[in-house]
C-alpha cells in the first residue's frame, strides 16, 4: 500500500513538473520567435554564412510556432499525455539546435570579435540565463539546451587558437565553462527547491482530500445518528402514540356497534346514523393524521431539499406525538396561538428538535416531588430576520455549571438507560444547519427556557 502511494505521488510530481515546463515555457516561445526574426533581419553583419543564418532563423521560427500551439493546447486541457511530452522535448531540443546554429555561425564568421560579436555574446548569456527558469525541472531538457549553446562556442575558440591565425581567446573558454558549471549548479539547487515545493503541494492536496472524505463520512454518520435519535424518541413515546390511536379506535368500535343496533331496529333513525357515521369519519381522519405524521417523522429524509412549511403544521404534527404522553404525566401543554408564518426548512428535523425539547422538559417535570402545577409553555417571537420558539417549563432551573455543558455530545444528567446525551447536541446541529440556532435562555430568571431560532422566509 505504501509503495503504491509513493508511486502515485511520484507520478503526480512528474506530471506537475511537466506542466510547469509548459507554463514557464510558453512565454519563452515568444522570445524564441522574436530572436528568430531578429536574426533573420539583422544577420549579425555576416556575409559568408548569412544565407545559412537566415535558413536557421526560419527553421527556428517554425519550431517556435509549433511549440507555442502545442503548449497552448496542453494548458487548455490542464494535462499532457506522454506523446505530447515527447513532442515538447523534441521541440525544445530543436529550439536549442536552431539557436546554436545561428549563434555558432555568427561567432565563427566574426572570429569572436567586433561589435556584432558583442551582440552574439549578449544574446547567448541572456538565453542561457533565462533557460534556468523554464527548463530547470528536467536534466533531459536543461543540460542539452545549455550544451548546444555553449559547447559550439568553446569549439570555435579552440579552432581559432590552433588555426594559423592563432587567435588566443582561451580566457573566454574559461568564462564560458565557469558559466556552464555555474548554471549546472544552479539547476541542481533550483530543481531541488521546486521538487520540495511541489511535494508539499501534493501532500497538501492529499490532506485536503482526506479532510473532504472524512467530512463526508462524518456527514453520513451524522445523518444516521439523527435518524436513530429520532426513532429513539418515537420508541420512548410509543405508549402515548399507541394510546393516541387507541382512543379513536374505541370511538369507531362503539359507533359501529350503535350503527349495528340501529340497522336491526324497525325504524331507521337517519340523524343517529349520520351522527355516528361522522364520529367514525373524524376518528378515521385522526388515525390517518397520526399514522401519516408517524411515517413522516420516521422517514430517513434528512437530505431532502428544504421546503416552505407553515409553523402551525409543524406544531400540529409534533403535539400529536406528545399530548398523550404529557397528559399521562399530569403535565399541561400551554400552546400560544401560532402565527400564520412560513419557514423554509426540513419539517421532520424541526419536529425532532421540538420533540426532543418537550421530552426533556417532561422528564424534568416528572422528577418533581413538590405538589405544584406541572406545565410546559410554547411561545413565539419574531424580528425582521428570525422567528423564535420559546419552550419553557415550570420545573427547577438548570444550574449554570450544567447549562454550560448541555449541548456537548454525550453529556447527560439522566440515568444511563434513559438518555444518551445526544438529543440536544443533535438538535443544536440541526438548527445550525438551518441557518439558525438552539440555545438555553440565560436571561429568564424564573423558568427553564430553550429557544429555537430560525430564519424567516420572506415572500
Automatic annotation (TrEMBL):
Show where the Histidine kinase domain sits.
240-458
Entry-linked Gene3D superfamilies: 1.10.287.130, Histidine kinase-like ATPase, C-terminal domain (3.30.565.10)
UniProt keywords (A-Z) are: ATP-binding, Kinase, Membrane, Nucleotide-binding, Phosphoprotein, Transferase, Transmembrane, Transmembrane helix, Two-component regulatory system
Query: Out of the domains of life, which is the source?
Result: Bacteria
One Pfam family, short name please?
Answer: HisKA
Name of the top EC class for this enzyme:
transferase
Which SUPFAM superfamilies would you find in this protein's record? Answer: ATPase domain of HSP90 chaperone/DNA topoisomerase II/histidine kinase, Homodimeric domain of signal transducing histidine kinase
According to its UniProt record, the EC number is 2.7.13.3
Provide the reaction this enzyme catalyses.
ATP + protein L-histidine = ADP + protein N-phospho-L-histidine
Q: Where are the transmembrane segments?
A: 28-45, 51-73, 85-108, 114-133, 140-160, 166-182
Q: InterPro entries of this UniProt entry?
A: HATPase_C_sf (IPR036890), HATPase_dom (IPR003594), His_kinase_dom (IPR005467), HisK_dim/P_dom (IPR003661), HisK_dim/P_sf (IPR036097), Sig_transdc_His_kin-like_C (IPR004358)
Q: What is this protein called?
A: histidine kinase
Question: Which species is this UniProt entry from?
Answer: Bacteriovorax antarcticus
